[in-house]
Amino acid sequence: MNIGISMEFDAAHHLPMHEGRCSRIHGHTYRVEVVLQGNPGDDGMIVDFYVLKKIVSRVIQELDHNDLNSVLQNPTAEMIASHIHRRLREELNISGVSERASLISVRLWEGRDKWVMVDE
């Protein structure tokens, strides 16, 4: 069974390896969709949504209203999604949630109609 959560954050970045307009600093509203897979436990849940939201929030807070170039050398949507995926795996392990559920995918929306997805 899969469960998911989505959250948004705002951030600025520029793409130093890009020759077009994106080489200049600009901002986006990003939406992150996280999907976990597992079986409901004795409590009837795979993971409490409150717990999952806290975990995703910790990762997103590192990026929200930040210059993404201070976090990643070349913050393309692909690199941001990979960073979020890696950080979520770490946080799921630290919290013990990874014992009940596996991270299946992270989809990052850059604006309304563009997205990238990292899956297992």
Protein architecture, described:
Strand 4 (101-110) and strand 5 form a beta hairpin. The radius of gyration is 15 Å and the shape is elongated. It is built from 2 helices and 5 strands. The protein is α+β, with helices and mostly antiparallel strands. A 5-stranded mixed beta sheet has the order 3-1-2-4-5. The protein has helices at 49-61, 77-95; strands spanning 2-13, 26-38, 66-67, 101-110, 115-119.
Number of helices: 2
- Please tally the β strands and state the result: 5
Distance between the termini: 16 Å
Fraction of helical residues? 25-40%
Largest sheet: 5 strands, mixed
Tell me the Rg in angstroms.
Answer: 15 Å
Keywords:
alpha+beta; 2 helices; single chain; 27% helix; 120 residues
Structural topology:
Layout: E1 2-13, E2 26-38, H1 49-61, E3 66-67, H2 77-95, E4 101-110, E5 115-119
Helix pairs in contact: 1-2
Could you give a quick summary of the protein structure above?
Helix content is 27%, strand content 35%. The protein has 120 residues and is an alpha+beta fold.
